[in-house]
Amino acid sequence: MSQGIDPRTAEPVGDPIPDHTADEVNACVDRAAEVAGWLAATSNSTRAAMLRAVASAIRDNETDLVALADAETALGEQRLVGELARTAAQLDLFAGVIEEGAFCEATIDHADPAAVPPHGDLRRMLVPLGPVAVFAASNFPFAFSVLGGDTASALAAGCPVVVKAHPSHPGLSNRVAKVAREALAQAGAPTDLLQVVHGYEAGRILVTHPAITAVGFTGSVKGGRALFDLASGRDDPIPFYGELGSINPVVITQAALAQRSDQIAAGLVGSFTLGTGQFCTKPGLIFAPDDQAFAEAVAEKAQAVDLGPMLDARIHSAYQEGVEALCKVPGVAPVLTPEAASGPGYHARPAVLTVSAKDFRANARALTEECFGPVTVIVSYQDTAELTGALSEIAGSLTGTIHAEPGDPAAAEVLDVLRKRAGRIIFNGWPTGVAVTWSQHHGGPWPATTSVLHTSVGATAIRRWLRPVTYQDAPDELLPQELQEANPLGIPRRVDGVLQPGSPQR
Amino acid sequence: MSQGIDPRTAEPVGDPIPDHTADEVNACVDRAAEVAGWLAATSNSTRAAMLRAVASAIRDNETDLVALADAETALGEQRLVGELARTAAQLDLFAGVIEEGAFCEATIDHADPAAVPPHGDLRRMLVPLGPVAVFAASNFPFAFSVLGGDTASALAAGCPVVVKAHPSHPGLSNRVAKVAREALAQAGAPTDLLQVVHGYEAGRILVTHPAITAVGFTGSVKGGRALFDLASGRDDPIPFYGELGSINPVVITQAALAQRSDQIAAGLVGSFTLGTGQFCTKPGLIFAPDDQAFAEAVAEKAQAVDLGPMLDARIHSAYQEGVEALCKVPGVAPVLTPEAASGPGYHARPAVLTVSAKDFRANARALTEECFGPVTVIVSYQDTAELTGALSEIAGSLTGTIHAEPGDPAAAEVLDVLRKRAGRIIFNGWPTGVAVTWSQHHGGPWPATTSVLHTSVGATAIRRWLRPVTYQDAPDELLPQELQEANPLGIPRRVDGVLQPGSPQR
Q1: I need a surface site. Which of A127, A257, A441, B15 has the fewest CB within 10 A?
Q2: Are residues B379 and B288 in the same domain?
């Protein structure tokens, strides 16, 4: 059973929502499989229209949806309005991606008897995998939930989606699904292209169901690993795209700190307390020159921030235990220890800890695990050698950030270390705030993501739900339009090794 | 210990080659990790020159290499000369792929404060993973071995390679590595970009070594599954690209059989006996209209084929056991049972079996497992409904083939069933013979390959060894050339959502 809870008061919101039984989950997947053929056969323009209809529907229901989201998450109206807009824009982006058509990687090699070895006519494109499962996250009730990037990219690819709802916003999950399914029906599409199930066991059933062809997941290392192991352990293993945990190192060079210490302190506090620190890109480790004044400035600014409550009771207690554990690591000194927050809800206070680079290296395992919430650890270093030595202790991360000055000699060296460990490198900015664009990458070496090759944000997220098929010597009339000789859709293609730009028909 | 054996005589070829010890394997990986930074920092043109130097070197050593390959595999000079040429051409193809530059997917979004949400300057490209392990196959001693497609694409991507040699051509493996390493040295590259290890345990060590970032494998379902489980079970799971087993269904429609029964029988025999049936794309299941005369024609032609010996003792005995097991499946009737082959080597005779579609469905599990060697099973069907019902029992396969006539009503229906199960669909041809082109796909749903998203043959095979990195607001001078504003390499890029063709500088 899932029960929406107001994090401000710990009081229930709405009625309890029963878990789906195994039979119900299986029936959902069967229905998804039944509509998979219909969806795979749709044109890119039909799917684009569907995505835009769903985007419009959530915009049209903004007031209602934001109010319910705020009741269940306490993330605040302003943030949630922005997140809903971003979620709708993401659906629109994928509509544009499939209309443009390069995403299917249409590639044609005409027959060549002179090649080594000789070959016939070969035509390759990407086609949808089939029904997929998506595990929603707690911290983005719109953008990484029922209609988030995983769902948007999977529907764009042509894969029906069964979402495992996150239990911390169960009412919103059902409400968003209802809005989306109504929009699908009005657009002439089967409503079962998008379904939502509730319950822990429902998730396990999804991952092991024979008709599920891939899984998208955003959540904890522990939960993600367990599901990854289930997906990999199937008789027929399926791709599992999990975004698990990220420490998001930030490096501040000597020159940058000398130049703009105050600005950096303010930016850091804004970033690590944003959304009460409940971002996967929260900067959790700050490598800064040894400077107690900087640490104190960060602590002072953090203390002044008015934080919203945390998302749910589990996250709230995990944060408090996490900070306690960090404080017990040898060499860690708190500059700002969280006071006990008052009131009945899941309120939390920020924490700022410091540790020397030497102690960090000696306790790297404990200090490089993500602690979800408004805590950051400042690692103080003496010189660049100590800095890069400490940085090399970090495993994979979604992001790495460099604050450096123009011509800064440390920048290239730090970049070299971070690039091996992070999927996105930010210069003179902050990792929170993940733009949804063609060039975005949201992923990184383990444990940031289970698949280092794929992103969960940005246009190329669609690649996760597609597999290649090559047609050899196929009659033109049996080929998909994307591969027909005349290129009726005007999509970009590679023909006999040469990229040909598209000629949009719309 | 590995010992080359002449399959024609079962006599040893060359000296025994000791297995690498754990320390030796670890030292190889350490050396690969040491040169990984050098390789990742090379320009595309430097790596292209390296690949071409290696290609030239194996062409220059053709006589010597083919003689040694023939002594260890008995595949015959003509076939091996062709395979060496294909292997060299494959290295050249990847040189061209990286010179052209689209493979790195350079994508630039300039800062856009008006976007939802606003974003900074974002630039994405693919970068090499790091050292990788490649498991060579028995049946292509050049094209899927030390310098095969996995190695060529990994080096092109910028990843050092440690090859686990196949024990059925150990002397050739060392000889090819020596030629390649000398060519690398002459091209000014570190020789440890390519290393070879021997021994079963060496393979396990490679897959679990912390510095190995991905694995390419071609071999059996059992061996591949065990290594896939090791790779997935690591504390930090790594991608495992295994090509395991494939039954390669062929469908002959009523119209096609009526039109050209003899031609189809001849083509089928040529394909299923090619290389003594030791191709991953060997047609193992032939769905044909119920016609005993066709089956007998196939058997008659097969009996007349002069087969070379099989590759090694294990494959030889597995083939004989596999045919015996198939013959015991209820409903299976042999049309051509292999006679015992005479002589001391690993000689084998072809087998042609038949079964009704009904009995096939009742025993699908036993009949859809690959039997490596010159055996094919003809499944006779009465009508299209029985045909598609039987086809739906097949799991994933590398290929699916359709023999149909122009306007054949069955073609589209069969295509629809096969496309879900196979990575390459061949019309009126045969699945053996895998061209190395931009549009090739060699992969398929489990158990054809462990990753349904990736290919082991063709230009896009390079994608397996690359991961995305996005730079946010990076100074131009710290960006790789591929992402610098001026596009100094003239590679194709997507800028602000629009594909821009390259302007080759060479």
Answers
A1: B15
A2: yes
